[in-house]
Amino acid sequence: MIITLLEGILGNLKIPFETIQLEYPADMEHGDFSTNIALACAKKAGVNPRELAEKIVAEIEKNKPVDITKMEVAGPGFINFYLAPQFFAGTIGQIVKEGKEFGKNESLKGKKVMVEYTQPNPFKPFHIGHLMSNAVGESLARLVEWSGAKTVRANYQGDVGPHVAKAIYILLKNPAPAELTTASSQAEYIGKCYSQGSQAYEEDPETKKEIDAINKKIYEKSDEEINKVYDWGRKVTLDAFEELYAILGTKFDYYFFESEMAPIGQKIVQENVGPVFEESDGAIVFKADKYDPKLHTRVFINSQGLPTYETKEIGLTMTKFAKEQNLDLSIVDTAVEQAEYMKVVEKAMSLLKPEYAEKMKHITHGMMRFAEGKMSSRKGNIITGESLVRDSKAMIMEKIADRDFTAEEKETVSAIVGVGALKYSILRQAVGGDIIYDFEKSISFEGDSGPYLQYSATRVKSVLAKAQNEKVSVDASLPKEWQTTVLERLLSRFPDTALRASREYAPHHIASYLGSLARAWSSFYDSTKILDDSDATPYKLSLATAVGTVLESGLALLGITAPERM
Questions:
Q1: Is the whole-model pTM more than 0.85?
Q2: Same domain (yes/no): 172, 212
């Protein structure tokens, strides 16, 4: 409405413009929308920006739409717009009518997007970095889905490489104890073997030679005993990962494995020695700095003839586009530590398959840190992703111990809220930055936390359940003398917030928005009797319905579920 209005005014004034940008003022006292169009156009028009802004406002005042109550010129030439209560009532009615469809957009309609995330390695623990990648990647997948794309979820797992050989070296000497019968306990034991093997690899040259030999045999599948241990360990750790994916609410469409991608990538690299790659000291390398001075040379096939991560990435990229025909975008979320080598891979891909390289988007997340600093699975002193989920769930269980819940309800609520606490702690900050994880803050039912948002949603459900029992109807018709609340103004911003989060691959915009909405709802709930005998009750109930809808939709975009009760 406002953009169309401004386009018409500028056209009538014969003032050239490119695009008209509207923003939400940081402080709602400064209006519902703001534009800098006068500042952007003033120079070309040869007029003072503030004078132009005042002229635009004067033109609008001649035939002002009923949805605009007033306008103000601020600063050097910003125009602030204040909208009428009926505009927001219309939005509330729209939310009530559309339900979970409200706020969706079609910015990616007709597009096919693959999102690759989590990437744990069999024979190693599911560490905190994998938990972060899972949270970020699942949210990104949901955001592009929300924007109309056909979304394909993929997981790439390192089932070959030195880490496997290190674990198998110990397993050959010390098989898993018979009393370990679950996939989770067996996987935990394999993770400890990996840590022991890593330490031995670094400290003893002879052990290093043995592990390197095992690594080669794994690729060749030339040793029956090693193959047997490998097949068992691979299955056990993958089964344990699946148990965790179910808890985290993730289901993948594709599982890619390094063992399958390695020969594909190796063939491509070897076939392109000369045009793209070069031989160097018995290895095959890619000198990316020849094409971009910011990049560097990396080994793609080592002197032992084995493919490196880079070569497997080449095979993976080729496979993705072969598996999913007409793929428009391939998003990969990894730890920031992989940023530089992924740039080299993308440069190599731009020479091998430029049409694929143009569709590659690499997103990195930071590290989760505790008081001890960054932890390393190689040293065996980690808090695993699985243990973090388990501990978060246990602490929520303690908080709800005295609630009037059945044992089954407590189990369900503690799992949902525990996972929500972790995911929100990860997603509330901009992707790419490190996270200082605070257990107590993450599980708090107050403040900036996942449980607080979930609790806010359950309070809405409580109100709606009571209204249903009392047979109170919902009606979004605007009551007489109704004063627009912060809630209504925030609810109207949800579609734009979701669109921005999708375009910028930035879930934290959703997290921040939900925090503001939950606080506004809490304030409204504490100060307003929703179910009373006034004529405003049906509208207040529609407002509560809208809050519940948007809270649940927003939480779903973060991969978080709201329980029925807390």
A1: yes
A2: yes
Dist CA 562 CA 454 (whole Å):
5
229 and 335 both lie in a single domain: yes
Q: What is the rounded distance in angstroms from the CA atom of residue 477 to the CA atom of residue 530? A: 15
The token pair at 289 is 């700095």
- C-alpha neighbours within 13 Å on the C-beta side of residue 344: 22
Torsion of CA 547, 550, 555, 556, to 10 degrees: 140
Q: What's 481's domain CATH number?
A: 1.10.730.10
| 3-class SS shares of the chain: helix, strand, coil, % to 5 | 55, 10, 30
Please check whether residue 229 lies inside any domain of the structure.
yes
The pLDDT tens digits for 41-94 are 988 888 899 999 999 999 999 999 999 999 999 999 999 999 999 999 999 999
Coil, helix or strand at residue 393: helix
Highest mean pLDDT among 376-380, 440-444, 522-526: 522-526
Average pLDDT, the chain: 94
Partner residues linked to 331 by β-bridges:
115, 361
Position 375 pLDDT exceeds 80: no
How far is the C-alpha of 263 from the C-alpha of 311, rounded, in Å? 9
For residue 66, what are the contacts with CB-CB under 8 A and spacing of at least 6? 84, 86
The larger pLDDT score, comparing residue 42 to residue 417, is at 417
Residue-level pLDDT at 420: 97
We report the CATH number of the domain holding residue 21 as 3.30.1360.70
Element (H, E) at 362: strand 360-365
Q: Please give the share of the chain, as a percent, with pLDDT higher than 90.
A: 89
Same domain, 413 and 456: yes
Contact yes or no for 489/32 (Cβ under 8 A) = yes
- Cα gap 219→163, rounded to integer Å: 13
Residue 171 lies in a domain: yes
Predicted pLDDT of residue 533:
87
Cα–Cα dist 85/360, whole Å: 45
Q: How far apart are CA 514 and CA 551, in angstroms?
A: 7
Q: 305 and 429: one domain?
A: no
**Using a CB cutoff of 8 Å and minimum separation of 24, what contacts does 227-231 make?**
229/168, 229/171, 229/172, 229/175, 230/164, 230/168
Q: State the Cα–Cα distance between residues 89 and 108, nearest whole angstrom.
A: 29
**Mean local confidence (pLDDT), 247-261:** 97
Q: What is the CATH number of the domain that holds 361?
A: 3.40.50.620
Q: Say what the pLDDT of residue 16 is.
A: 86
Domain boundary among 369, 385, 411: 369
Residue that the structure tokens 């503001």 belong to: 516
- Residue 31 sits in the same domain as residue 141: no
502 falls within a domain: yes
What is the average pLDDT across 359-373? 84
Q: Is residue 280 classed as helix, strand or coil in its secondary structure?
A: strand
Domain that holds residue 272: 117-369
**Domains of the chain: total:** 3
Reported confidence tier of residue 378, pLDDT bands at 50, 70, 90:
very low
CB atoms within 10 A of CB 279: 11
